[in-house]
Amino acid sequence: MLSILRKKNRKIEEIKRGKRKIMHISDTPRSVYKFLGELIAETQPDVIIHTGDLVDNLKLERKPWLKEKYAESLKKLSFIFGKSGALVYIVPGNEDDVELIKRIILNSILVKPGSVIKLYGLTFALSHKPEDIKEIQADFKLYGHDPKCFEGLNGIHSVNFIIIPEKKVVKINYPPGTNFDRGYRIFRGL
């Protein structure tokens, strides 16, 4: 287990005690995959929601010639998701290739940005960009993309676990260096 998980032991134990657990992540550089795999194995979420930019360190939108590396990284993430046994929802982000996601991460449900899904009697507005769900009414609003946005649950700031039926949110920090790997050289205001 990663030392970062040992430091978060109280939070991890709280998550593990939950009857149902929804894990929300976003903008994941490849450098956090091992951490995510260990966190998933430790907490055993029932549902994983990824709100886009699955290989955020490659910036595929601006560097399309990195598609092959992107595909290889998707295979690693797909293995982690598949091993979890969780139901996986993916909202593609601006740095994602939808066709490659469909082809590589087979056991997932692709969701259009701005969609609302129902899980365990609750509604979840899902998007990569926060502005796509700003006006939508839902029990939880999950997104990523914008590190300056703090409304709802931003998957850039932390790995968010929603414990059901309590509707309690437990936040686990990403490992140090994650923002640098995302390409955030200066992370002002946080």
UniProtKB/TrEMBL annotation:
SUPFAM superfamilies: Metallo-dependent phosphatases. It comes from the Archaea. Residues 21-105 form the Calcineurin-like phosphoesterase domain. Pfam families: Metallophos. GO terms for molecular function: hydrolase activity. InterPro entries: Calcineurin-like_PHP, Metallo-depent_PP-like. This is Calcineurin-like phosphoesterase domain-containing protein.
